[in-house]
Amino acid sequence: MKVLVLEDDAEIGAWVQSGLSRAGHTVDWLTNGKDALIAATTQDFDVLVLDRMVPELDGMSVLRAIRAAKVRTPVLFLSALSEIDDRVEGLQAGADDYLSKPFALTELEARVAVLGRRNMPAEAPEATKLTHGDITLDLLKQTCTRQGQAVDLNGKEFRLLEALLRAKGRVQTRNMLLEKVWNINFDPTTSVVETHLSRLRAKLEKPFGDTVIRTIRGAGYVIDSP
Question: What's the pTM?
């Protein structure tokens, strides 16, 4: 993650920068509020770590300014102002977390990691169906339909079609399909791919009078993108 640290104490700033860098983060360390405000509003950061008492523009003013500018980057206050009223004031101004000085570097690293995860986009749920034109493969029910009609596939035929649909538009070699469907890395003597593809085509293509799976001579097989 990319982290902005605003800290005017040279010893603390270097310590924090070193610790967060060792934890795998890219750290920009600034010592005055004016520079921090410019950086926070013109660059993309995953987390902002702000000291409250810094030169030129205090941390609270920096926070209020970036929130007014619609910057929603998570903010952690790092401050010697540790009374309850100070912490409440910081949180009400738009901070996401508040860590009082003195502090343990491991705790700071943990809190930065948590705030960074909040800012990450949620992963899209994995698809439970694969489709291609009028073909639908239901991965949960392990069923295949075409034009609304059930296509009766055995387990290997289903996995073969799944592998081709997941790689839609990309040629799959015989060895690639062996590995994905049969967990065989290489076997020059087997014709299992060709046998199952023939059966799959007989069920998926022949009754509907068209071609879904193309053979690329000397290369492999592909289901073209629409």
Answer: 0.54
